[in-house]
């Protein structure tokens, strides 16, 4: 009797499953495709007493002492290609998702709606994100075939790009609402698939690669205000200028970033999620292999336990409040600066780019910092920086120089919060980052995007632009309280050390060390 690794752990196989022991090839259940034939020596070799397997690096053993022999290179090419493709997808995602804030005035001219009404575009995108996140998580856990996942990613990217771009072609505000809602569903799918796939690829080492993924979101976010500034500067933004064409051109340029992503996943080789498993992971797999129920059924059983309900609920609220504040501040910063008269529209676009530039720099630094610093400490430092910067922004809201510094500090502090919280689930609480778990986390953050923009745009209409800063300060203060509860009471009893690596000189050396 031998064993194989499937999506739920180790499952027993009969000797007849091994199709060719001389060539070292067997039919193995893969997280991507059940009928894929993988070489035994890649990525590991399994041995059993009643199924002796001869290979260049194998030996016979008993079933009670089967072992996993790593045969994967330190720098696995296929996994890194998959990681880089997901990173480029997040460049596109960040550019398109952050485009709405700088183009609100263009949408206003296009549809004849005021800023308060346009706030519902944020709401409908958030609602779509909730729906897409919930459905995407169930699909991710239910269907593990590589072909299915590639199709999901291709469709979600195409619908996201096409939906948002098409919304700029209509003068009716209702069409913009419908199309942005559809795009939000696609974004929810894409977000869950990408974050969960990174977890499948890297296991306990997921922290640094999640930081890398979300760093690329920041790279894309930097480009959108620059695109808007460039297009409006060339095409004009005055009363007699063609603002409608400027709006469409901005989204055509941004949506075109999806083309390389679609082509890659359409023609790419299999996305290999297999990886070397540690002794600790192997023991967990052995335990889970006795339970053949679906991941969704097992997760619903876990939800009946009071402890995990509290954990998930508090994490969702804490992350939701943080994401609320980030989304509305970044989305309405351009509007705040122009309404306050701190600078002109071009200067407002540059200030928005400053936020996303520092945001991107922060995520780049977080890739290296997360290799040495625990997620708990990263989140505490980020929250303190956020509270300090937003308080200073409220006090010096009329001073452009000081306000610009505060915007930069906010960008750096916001940068690593979301991926650090995702990593917290595994490293601090001890739960596996499955598709369903990812869906619940994204559900909390998406609900903030669905509700808060309307509240804050209404506050800005009633009390002036300063309402944005006060609402952001309140949200961050409440979020700090919830994170404190997590750190104080929700750490796992049997602590599992986070992955740390020694200091290295270059990103390549760092990744090689982690791999």
Q: List unreliable stretches of 5+ residues.
A: 1-71, 272-277, 302-306, 493-515
Computed Rg: 24 Å
Sheet having the most strands: 2 strands, antiparallel
- Strand/helix succession: EEEEEEHHHHHHHHHHHHHHHHHH
Distance between the termini: 31 Å
Helical content stands at: 55-70%
For the largest sheet, list the strands in their spatial order: 1-2
The fold-level CATH name of the largest domain is Growth Hormone, Chain: A
Task: Note the main attributes of this structure.
transmembrane; disordered N terminus; transmembrane helix; MFS_trans_sf; membrane; 68% helix; two-stranded antiparallel sheet; mainly alpha; 515 residues; MFS
Topology summary:
Layout: E1 2-6, E2 9-13, E3 25-27, E4 37-39, E5 44-46, E6 68-70, H1 77-97, H2 104-111, H3 115-142, H4 146-167, H5 173-202, H6 206-235, H7 243-255, H8 258-267, H9 279-288, H10 295-303, H11 306-340, H12 345-369, H13 375-395, H14 400-415, H15 417-427, H16 435-463, H17 467-489, H18 507-514
Antiparallel strand pairs: 1-2, 3-4, 5-6
Helix pairs in contact: 1-5, 1-6, 1-8, 2-7, 3-5, 3-16, 4-5, 4-7, 4-8, 5-6, 5-16, 6-7, 6-12, 6-15, 11-12, 11-16, 11-17, 12-14, 13-14, 13-15, 13-17
């Amino acid at each position: 009797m031998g064993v194989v690794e499937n999506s739920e752990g180790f499952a027993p196989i009969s000797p007849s499953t091994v199709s060719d022991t001389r060539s070292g090839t067997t039919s193995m259940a893969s997280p991507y495709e059940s009928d894929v034939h993988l070489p035994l020596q890649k990525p590991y070799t399994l041995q059993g007493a009643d199924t002796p397997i001869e290979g260049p690096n194998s030996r016979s053993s008993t079933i009670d002492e089967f072992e996993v022999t790593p045969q994967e290179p330190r720098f696995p090419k296929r996994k890194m290609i998959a990681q880089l493709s997901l990173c480029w997808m997040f460049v596109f995602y960040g550019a398109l998702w952050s485009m709405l804030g700088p183009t609100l005035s263009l949408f206003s001219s296009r549809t004849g709606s005021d800023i308060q009404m346009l706030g519902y575009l944020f709401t409908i995108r958030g609602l779509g994100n909730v729906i897409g996140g919930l459905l995407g998580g169930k699909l991710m856990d239910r269907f593990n075939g590589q072909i299915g996942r590639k199709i999901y990613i291709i469709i979600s990217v195409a619908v996201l790009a096409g939906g948002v771009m098409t919304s700029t072609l209509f003068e009716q505000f209702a069409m913009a609402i419908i199309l942005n809602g559809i795009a939000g569903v696609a974004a929810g799918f894409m977000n869950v698939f990408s974050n969960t796939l990174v977890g499948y690829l890297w296991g306990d080492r997921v922290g640094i690669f999640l930081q890398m993924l979300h760093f690329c979101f920041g790279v894309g976010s930097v480009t959108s205000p620059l695109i808007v500034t460039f297009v409006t500067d060339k095409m004009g933004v005055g009363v007699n200028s063609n603002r409608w064409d400027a709006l469409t051109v901005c989204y055509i340029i941004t949506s075109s970033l999806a083309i390389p992503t679609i082509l890659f996943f359409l023609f790419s080789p299999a996305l290999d999620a297999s990886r070397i498993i540690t002794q600790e992971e192997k023991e967990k797999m052995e335990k889970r292999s006795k339970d053949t129920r679906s991941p969704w059924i097992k997760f619903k059983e876990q939800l009946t336990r009071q402890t995990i309900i509290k954990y998930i609920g508090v994490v969702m609220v804490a992350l939701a409040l943080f994401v609320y504040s980030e989304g509305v501040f970044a989305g309405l910063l351009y509007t705040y600066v122009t309404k306050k008269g701190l600078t002109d529209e071009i200067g407002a676009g540059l200030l928005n780019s400053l936020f996303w530039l520092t945001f991107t720099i922060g995520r780049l630094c977080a890739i290296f910092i997360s290799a040495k610093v625990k997620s708990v400490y990263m989140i505490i430092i980020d929250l303190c920086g956020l509270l300090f910067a937003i308080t200073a922004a409220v006090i010096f809201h009329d001073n452009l120089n000081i306000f610009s510094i505060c915007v930069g500090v906010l960008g750096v502090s916001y940068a690593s919060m979301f991926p650090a919280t995702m990593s917290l689930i595994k490293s601090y609480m001890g739960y596996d980052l499955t598709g369903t778990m990812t869906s619940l986390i994204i559900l909390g953050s998406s609900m903030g995007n669905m509700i808060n923009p309307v509240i804050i745009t209404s506050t800005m209409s009633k009390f002036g632009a300063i309402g944005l800063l006060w609402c952001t300060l309140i949200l961050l203060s409440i979020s700090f309280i919830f994170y404190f509860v997590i750190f104080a009471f929700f750490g796992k009893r049997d602590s599992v050390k986070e992955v740390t690596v020694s200091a290295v000189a270059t990103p390549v050396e760092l990744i090689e060390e982690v791999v």
